[in-house]
Amino acid sequence: MSQTLRVVMAQLNLRVGDIHGNVERIIEAAISARDQRQADVILFPELTLCGYPPEDLLLRSSMQLRIEAGLRRLRDEVRGIYLVVGYPWLEDDKRYNAAAVIADGELLATYYKQQLPNYRVFDEKRYFEPGQEACVVDIKGVPVAVSICEDIWFPEPMAQAREAGAQLMLSLNASPFHLDKQREREEILAQRAREGGMPVVYVNQVGGQDELVFDGGSCVVDADGRVCQRAQMYEECLFPADLRWDGTGVAVHQSHPAPLPELEASVYQALVVGVRDYVAKNGFKGVVLGLSGGIDSALTLAVAVDALGAERVEAVMMPYHYTAQMSLEDAEQQARTLGVTYRVLPIAPMVEAFMAGLAPVFAGLGRDTTEENLQARCRGTLLMAISNKKGSLVLTTGNKSEVAVGYCTLYGDMAGGFDVLKDVPKTLVFRLCEYRNSLGQGEIIPQRVIDRPPSAELAPGQKDEDSLPPYPVLDEILKLYIEYDLSANAIIAEGFDADTVRRVLRLVDLNEYKRRQAAVGPRITQRGFGRDRRYPITSGWRLGD
Description:
Blueprint: E1 3-11, H1 19-36, E2 41-43, H2 63-77, E3 82-91, E4 94-103, E5 106-112, E6 136-139, E7 142-148, H3 155-163, E8 168-173, H4 181-196, E9 200-204, E10 206-209, E11 212-215, E12 219-221, E13 227-230, E14 237-245, E15 250-252, H5 263-281, E16 286-290, H6 295-308, E17 313-317, H7 325-338, E18 341-344, H8 348-362, H9 369-390, E19 392-396, H10 400-405, E20 418-419, H11 426-437, H12 447-451, H13 464-467, H14 471-483, H15 488-493, H16 498-510, H17 512-516
Parallel strand pairs: 1-2, 2-3, 7-8, 8-9, 16-17, 16-19, 17-18, 19-20
Antiparallel strand pairs: 1-14, 3-4, 4-5, 6-7, 9-12, 10-11, 12-13, 14-15
């Protein structure tokens, strides 16, 4: 006798630390899945109750009390559907990354995550003890196993579940985005499904959490490793999957999986989600940024408007003597096109006042980058004043290439609360601008901004490549050094000029102190400047092998 099973994947945007609010979301989603989608089971992401990653909130003494209260509410208020939900759990002075199966007021089973990631952005061994046992529970006659995120990347939990009699795997996840991540997930899901001879229902959360962006991509892979269903990326949804159990195995109903976005589309959406949620979850009224007429601030403005709406975005042009007329024209054109609040605040009076005050100190000393940095710091001061007065978040506009080598001014253009392009290399900035202009809404970013040679405009005739290697060369060197940890000699062996490599790597190392003080920004590569790259500021390490 066959048995049908409808599992709804709750691809939700949860808030870290808001246990009460997250429980409300769980109850609302469960009732909706039961009544509107006729679901038998609803599957939630990893650590749903507290949000992911909770970091040192887990160490708060009241965390366990709040989790216990949340679980009681779920048992008391939800009937007629199986809930599979993640949460942290303290038992015998050991903390576990747990998942519960709850139905009609009863806690039917508990699973403890076995594989604890401790690399890149993950540090779960700081908080959790690993589980040891499989969890297989009967749901409407179907033997169903539960696993949590990293478990699916290793063969042992699947093999253990199979040995315990499971015929279906439910996987709870909080897997953050980086380039090509969904393809990696689906390849490993296919491998595990074939190894276990059972389908995998995989739910992932969406939304921004500080520097992490979660892209969703909840999906179902059948026992042969085929992706049968996939939810829309980056969007909240309750996504149903229909399965049939015939007593010997579980078959998945084939549908048309939502398409995977191309690289530029996926990165752009990640940036939009990162800005939207950082602003919303931290209670800012809107954002303000310096619009210079250059490509980085132009892309940042476009992302901000797409994330928040033009009415919550303010752009400020702050010209000085070296600001080109082209920059003034292009900045105004983009601001008018997007419909944001726009104003021009010349900084010459402020810079000259600083210079006059410093004249006795600088007597006998020639001009250098000090005067350039004063311009940037005057701009930073203006933006922070607007932020204080209006309750807006300052968006900084430095890209990964510049931040890597310190081509930015501490307390100047680095002053702010969120750097949209912090993990976006300059070459990708150009591609994202072309992508945004291709969406059929006209020339959002003026083509002249894309075509002109990049310049900080802090000195007459200044161009970025006067101080830096060409960006295609620079970005490849940075990728090998930052994302893959290759040595200077190994990068040189790839065919790059030796002097250029050593100079770039030395700049990266010297400017660690700047990056420690930089604004947070969304991570889109495998190794951003944030929680997954931790190098000492003070170091005697020498470049070489």
